[in-house]
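Fig. S4 source data, part A: sequence.
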Amino acid sequence: MVKFCYFFFAFFNIFSLFADVLVESTINQNTAYLHFPVSGTITITHDKNSIIDASSFKLRGKTLEVSLVKNVYLNGNTAIAIYNFSLPAQELGMYVLPSIDVTVDSKVYHSASTNYSIVDSVPVAQVKETQETTFLKLEAFVRGTAKLYPGERTTLVYRISYNRSVDLTKSELPFIHTDVFLRVGDSQIQEEQQGALTVQEISQVIEATTVGKYVLGPSFIEGYAYQMNLLGKKEYGSQLLRAEAPAVEIQVNLFSNEDQPASFNGTIGKIHAKTSLLSSNKASMGQTLSLSLDITGATNLSEVHLPALMCQPGFSGLFSMDELAIYSQMEGKTKKFFFELRLLNALAFEIPSIELSSFDSLTKSYQIVHTEAIPLELQLNEIPSTESPAYKLQLFPDAQQVEQLFLQNHTPLALNNTLVTLHTLQLPFYQRKEMLYCIPLVLLFLAGQLWWRNQRLAQYKKDFLYSRYYLKQAENKLNVPEEFLKSLEAAIVWKLVEIKIYEQPKIDLGILTSHPELEKYKTILLQIQTYQFSLNKKFDEKELLKKVHDLVQT
């Protein structure tokens, strides 16, 4: 028996030295379910020194996207490369997987065609268990107030509760992709376990910008529950799970004009303010004073602006202010403004109190606060003394001097015999009539400059693609799964906008379903959404990035 085994392995090693490339392709039957993409495996037995062109895989003459699973090295020079691939969802029935072509060492090899079937469901026992125990619930609500004012913020929340892992096939979640409000930061996802239930919350902070009544929703999610079998494969139930949440209404109201202070500039909340003098309080005429103004308590602190000081009492005529020298910075929950005042008048014995006002959305009323005035010690400039020059006193002439003046003989003024003509009057070149002929040339030059500028702008817009921008963002966020998946999703959506499929960057799987040639976009979007909302966050980031990269770069 030992001799036989020895002879077998020796024969295998000798055969492997001369073995040609062998390509085999099969469909993973445990993924061939209705409504789901079908996955398959390609194995290539080859010499370990051979080079496989991973971009040369073709199915029915079209490029087939594959991902390398692993390389297995046998005794001798034989190696086996294992690849995975995916096909779009198909209807029930029997199908034939055609031959798959691949290039190895500049030579094309073909796999044999195989049969596979698409089934409606998993075994009856598993379906019954899934139908009886699967729980999926979606809630949509506002954490905070749903009645806002321009500049005010609130939080939109989705709460998804489930007791089994679910792969989503379709979703409509307007909270996450809203374009009627300003989204503040990225969506936040939190999960917690409550007994047998997993509760996932997706929250998005928004800021109201435009007055009006807005309805977001209704929202829904659809998918199939699955369990992992002993081989680590997903086994899906046949029941399509769907959870819905009613629409949420948000009202953005206009600020009340009644009792609105003149200093109000859109600040919301119950604020506190403090003015500090950063330079010395001993000032002289023309000197510049440096000050800071600290504001806290505003809910829209990032949108708070410095009030118009020159319009407030005690500033105009006594101080001047350079608007371009104002700058601000955030320090935690405090916004600091730095500005300068120039002293213009000796009557300015203090820096006046600054009035600030805000709208308190809780009491629906305006609040006015005043900072404390800052006293100044005015130092008068010393005026250097100068001696007045001695002026000679001038007297009017008397009558005798006037008489002598008229009795003197004066030579009458006469013009010399000089001929004054227009030719002797030389006009500047820009006032001559010949300059009129230059006007068309100038206009032609300006038109050329405008055309060149438009060409440059068009080229810039052509070169800058949002899809590639978000793809680059995803490459920088490989270690942050949530942001990584959002960047990949944005890259694909912008790619569909750039190829004129979408008119705006918004996911609409219905459009992709009606175009069979766009199935690859739909497949990768569904895969990204699956990773976003599933409990299992482990996936191959680099492989997913490569798939999206190939879609965006085409």
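Fig. S4 source data, part B ends here. The chain has nine helices and 32 strands.
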